[in-house]
Specification:
By secondary structure, this protein is an alpha/beta fold. It is built from 11 helices and 13 strands.
């Protein structure tokens, strides 16, 4: 039985990244790129984004080889979206050096034929009004998820709140959740987001993994312990790709236990992403490698014991 289809809408970019462990310039980046490279290990992915005429289509050959549908990738005359960032030894904090929207400034998601019937929808970190445009074009997905960031919390709060009420799951990092809810407690922040309508909130914790909150409780997934992390860019989007990719290959009911396993898959994929710059590690990553790391997660998180009165 084939996996369900996944629609992703977000950015494709050229990145300049500097960390204490190296520096790269003009490399493939963007939320859609990382998500797609991860999710395509599990299920068919349909991409909606825009690039400039300066990015050759051969850039995506490795995704085509995985069966990714790129009919929704618009090519506009001009330069591709560019972002530059620098990390210190605290790899959870990013210093943005520059952002050049270029052709992305005029982007509006236009879904090719068949895309509206996608089973899973991931609205990556783009303007919440654009996320709404996507969701309004889609019919009846099994699950929809959106990601967001501090920029939209500060400048587009009304639209962001509306979008949160349209999806099943919301993804954001700890500091963004606190900012959105105006509280120092991530538990309180998650509860306030759940009150807007989504069924679950995924809080990304960087090197500390992720936490999923629902009305009935929460589940904590640790990050995979690595000796060397070279570039954390795209870890959150590749986590989302592994998470949703696992769900898309599951044809039964999406129960809490299925969601928990999906989170571990997300953490496993993200742990490979940070081992090298850009998408270099994801390009040659195999599902067998992910499954081995998933088994490692099971081993180092398992414990036995009894309640002590």
């Amino acid at each position: 039985m084939t996996a369900s289809s996944i629609l992703v809408v977000g950015s494709v970019a050229y990145d300049d990244v500097e960390t204490p462990f190296g520096k790269v310039e003009h490399v493939l980046g963007g939320s859609t790129s990382y998500f797609t490279a991860a999710a395509s290990l599990y299920a068919p992915v349909r991409v909606v984004s825009v690039i400039g005429s300066d990015m050759p289509l051969s850039t995506f050959d490795f995704l085509r080889e995985r069966g990714v549908d790129l009919r929704g990738l618009q090519v506009a005359e001009g330069k591709t979206f560019r972002w530059g960032g620098r990390y210190d030894y605290d790899l959870n904090a990013t210093d943005t050096l520059f952002t050049e929207l270029n052709v992305y400034a005029g982007f509006h998601p236009d879904l090719p034929e068949g895309y509206a019937d996608s089973d899973f929808i991931f609205c990556a970190n783009i303007h919440p009004v654009l996320q709404q445009e996507v969701l309004q074009q889609c019919r009846r997905p099994r699950l929809s998820m959106m990601d967001t960031m501090n920029l939209w919390i500060e400048t587009e709060r009304k639209a962001l709140v509306e979008t949160m009420g349209m999806v099943d799951m919301v993804s954001l990092n700890e500091s963004e959740a606190r900012m959105f809810a105006g509280t120092s407690s991530v538990v309180t922040a998650a509860r306030r987001i759940l009150a807007l309508g989504p069924k679950a909130v995924l809080l990304k914790k960087g090197e500390n993994g992720a936490v999923m909150f629902t009305e009935t409780g929460f589940f904590v997934a640790p990050a995979y312990p690595l000796e060397e992390v070279r570039d954390p860019t795209g870890a959150g989007d590749s986590f989302a790709g592994g998470f949703m990719g696992y769900l898309a290959q599951h044809h039964g009911e999406i129960t809490p236990s299925v969601l928990h396993r999906a989170m571990i898959h997300g953490c496993a994929v993200a742990s490979f992403t940070v081992e090298e710059f850009s998408l270099d590690r994801l390009r040659r990553l195999t599902r067998a490698e992910v499954e081995q790391r998933y088994r490692d997660f099971r081993r180092f998180t398992h414990f036995e014991g009894e309640f002590v009165e």
